[in-house]
Amino acid sequence: MEGALKKIRSSGGRITKARRGLIRVFEEADKPLSVKEIRRSLGEIGVKTSMTTVYREINFMVKNGLVKEVNLYPEEKMYESAYLVHHHHLVCEKCGRVEGVGGCRLAEIEQEMYRKRGFRVTRHSLEFYGLCVECNQGVGLMT
Ligand SMILES: [Zn+2]
Ligand SMILES: [Zn+2]
């Protein structure tokens, strides 16, 4: 929270109730959120805002590096805190559950892109789509 507030101040932005609320919503979220979900979560902590305000404030936070866009679905943008450690997502296409997975192993591939093609990778985005453990009834689990 403090780091985020500092970032807003240093970019010349004001600390409004909506911004403070958004920071809290993103800190407490355990998965990427849609704009509708963000507005609902804001309401739950007593911050009443219009959709327009939510869109505007999210754009502000994306521009200032506090929040990141996550492209899980072509029809709806999702957002998550930019302070999370690097991770990918597992998206269940049956129940819609979204889980974060860490332990990225793409560094080697990125180095190869540089060595073989001269392409310097600065970031990547990779999401996995399929069936979650419950929808798949635990098949394939090694326990
Ligand atoms: Zn599922
Ligand atoms: Zn990665």
From TrEMBL:
InterPro entries: FUR, Fur_C, WH-like_DNA-bd_sf, WH_DNA-bd_sf
Cofactor(s) the protein needs: Zn(2+); Mn(2+); Fe(2+)
Plastid found in the keyword field: no
One function term, GO molecular function aspect: zinc ion binding
GO biological process terms, semicolon-separated: negative regulation of DNA-templated transcription; regulation of secondary metabolite biosynthetic process
Keyword Transcription regulation assigned: yes
Keyword list, A-Z: DNA-binding, Iron, Metal-binding, Repressor, Transcription, Transcription regulation, Zinc
Cofactor note: Binds 1 zinc ion per subunit. Binds 1 Mn(2+) or Fe(2+) ion per subunit.
CDD domains: Fur_like (cd07153)
Chain sites annotated for binding Fe cation: H86, H124
Binding site for Zn(2+): C92, C95, C132, C135
Similarity comment text for this entry: Belongs to the Fur family.
Protein's UniProt name: Transcriptional repressor
